[in-house]
Amino acid sequence: MNIPAKPTRDGFGEGLLDAASNPSVVALGSDISDSVRTKWFADEYPERFFSLGIAEQNATGVAAGLSLAGFIPVVANYGVFASGRAFDQIRTSICYPNLNVKICGAHGGISVGPDGATHQALCEIALMRVLPNMTVIVPCDSNQTRVATKSAILDIDSPVYIRTGREPISLFTEPDEPFEIGVAIFRRRGGDVSIIACGAMVYESMCAAELLSAKGIEANVIDLHTIKPIDEKAILEAAACGAIITVEEHQIIGGMGSAIAEVLSKHPVSIEMIGINDRFGESGSPEELLEYFGLTANAIAERTERFLSERKNVG
Amino acid sequence: MSPREKNNLDELARRIRYDIVMSVYNAGSGHPGGSLSIADVLAVLYGEVLRHDSRNPKWPERDRVILSKGHAAPALYAALAETGYFDREILWTLRKYGSPLQGHPCMLKGPPGIEMSTGSLGQGLSIAVGLSLGARLARANWRTYCIIGDGELDEGSVWEAIMAAAHHKLDNLCAIIDENRLQIDGFCRDVMDPGDLDARFRAFGWNTIRVNGHELDSIRSAFDGANETKGKPTAVILSTIKGKGVSFMENRAEWHGKAPNEAQARAAIEEIGFTWGELGGTR
Q1: Is A41 among the domain residues?
Q2: What is this model's ipTM?
């Protein structure tokens, strides 16, 4: 199957342009507007774009102020800086007063590649989901990112963090697929195991499910695009089969898998968490790194198979 | 300023000082020193300079005040209560469970007139820059005032905002620097020397006006000067005395974050020129 590829940052750029018909939407630049795709908005609406230089803390506070003035500011940066560098501004000046600011963390995950650990956002899901009032979205492809971005800007009147990626990834959803923030999508149905994933790992998990199917294991694949508020109903439905695999391009500690475990702590079920295991990333091609960190369809299928057989042996 | 106006402002400043001392005394904790140092500028702002309407706190055309040095909340609460934003009796609930008067200003819980949640230092000027950009984009005439402590200038994010305000030529923005020369660990010059603030702000492209922060006429003129300055933001740098108006608190770092006991509160209220309990707040 030959599927076109497109980076989710492009979907963000398009979604921001879609939302721009609302004249209250403004965007802030931190010297990387081309890379994070806010430049597309800046070129169309220069009067609604504010360049603030390499100063993420200030940009985040400025976004809070623009929100107080009645605008809907969108501030996009590399995820490491968008979330970590400006964390206290997000906490105190955006989430505490529950301001309508949209933060896009670009270059999420290990697949940023050659830039190495400093630029690979691997802990922002944890950082952002711990904040009250914050919505956290990790869309699975560029089409979903586009609708998610538009919806985050226009449909929600509170802070949203949305993660995008740098590398082209499979564009497997339809542009007009129904999307609702907070409502997970079952991409595949199967009764043996549930694989819950977000971001680029959704497609990898779907491929993994095909590999498993060839071996007689049928998996649910759940696209958990919204990490917070988390779709408890979908997670409980997924847990009914008794075994859950979580897959994310993020630290296992505090990430999507942890969020799922928080839901399931009241309904115990075996969970295998696939992600980055408490270490920093490093330089390499995206493919090499995904391979090394076990974030490919093959690796997910192998881990799932092993997990299921180990459970059987214990049982 | 006419003598009568000046008398009114003098009285407002005195009442704000009473409220600061009495509310912090009632709370049993809080920050009297840096609150007293901005009592006069708040009197000038809320009593004279701001376009605001306490009966319509969300009036879209109002000027905005961001208290970046959020620990001086008792001063802001006092100014708001004294100009009719809420019942003065609420002042005595400062820092107590269930009170709108949180230890640091909270926009959602707070009383009417709190424009923004602050308290984590170094963030207010960025917010004020955003407000000023927003006002300009909306072609609105309201102005934004941001009150910053001199100790707070240690925070690097303030200088990011200072650079941004000049870059965007925000002449609808006025930063108010409370230069009381003290921070928690001692004198600013020993803790982290802020240097010549006039020179530093000018070097960053700002207009600066320095006045005695306890002379109401001078403060008023400084804001006139800020209002008339076009093409760049203005920093009104107030030479102030931490703890001003209560002699045993003046210029003493230990009164940054400590509540007076009853004897101290009585002495303070007397020195401010009221009798004990004259404006309420006694238990």
Answers
A1: yes
A2: 0.97
Handedness of CA A269, A291, A108, A197 (dihedral sign): negative
Note whether A32 contacts B: Cβ–Cβ < 8 A: no
Q: Angle, to 10 degrees, between the axis of helix A56-68 and the axis of helix B124-137? A: 50
Tally C-beta pairs within 8 A across A and B. 113
Q: Chain B residue with minimal CA distance to A73? A: B130
CA distance A113 to A34: 18
Are residues B31 and B256 in contact, defined by beta-carbon separation less than 8 angstroms?
yes
C-alpha span between B121 and B158 (Å, rounded): 9
Structure tokens at A309: 């057989």
Asked if residues A62 and A74 have their Cβ atoms less than 8 Å apart, the reply is: no
What pLDDT, in 10s, does the model give residues B223-265? 999 999 999 999 999 999 999 999 999 999 999 999 999 999 9
Contact criterion met (CB < 8 Å) for A68 and B134:
yes
* Chain A residues touching residue B116 (CB < 8 angstroms): 64, 68, 93, 97
CA nearest B175: which of B188, B186, B159, B190? B159
d(CA B35, CA B240): 11
Whether A152 maps to a domain, the answer reads yes
- CATH code where residue A136 lies: 3.40.50.970
CATH number of the domain that residue A243 is part of:
3.40.50.920
Rounded Cα gap, residues B158 and B165, in angstroms: 10
Closest Cβ opposite residue B115 in set A50, A68, A88:
A68
CA distance A21 to A43: 14
Same domain, A42 and A189: no
On whether both A270 and A192 belong to a single domain, the answer is: yes
Could you tell me which CATH class the domain B3-272 is placed in?
A: alpha beta
- How many domains, in total, are found in chain A? 2
Question: Whole-prediction pTM value?
Answer: 0.97
The closest alpha carbon to B144, from A201, A65, A211, belongs to: A65
CA angle at A17 for the pair A12 and A20, rounded to the nearest 5°: 125
* A175 assigned to some structural domain: no
| Ordered mean pLDDT values, 10 residues apiece, chain A (315 residues) | 91 98 98 97 98 98 98 98 98 98 98 96 98 98 98 98 97 97 98 98 98 98 98 98 98 98 96 98 97 98 97 72
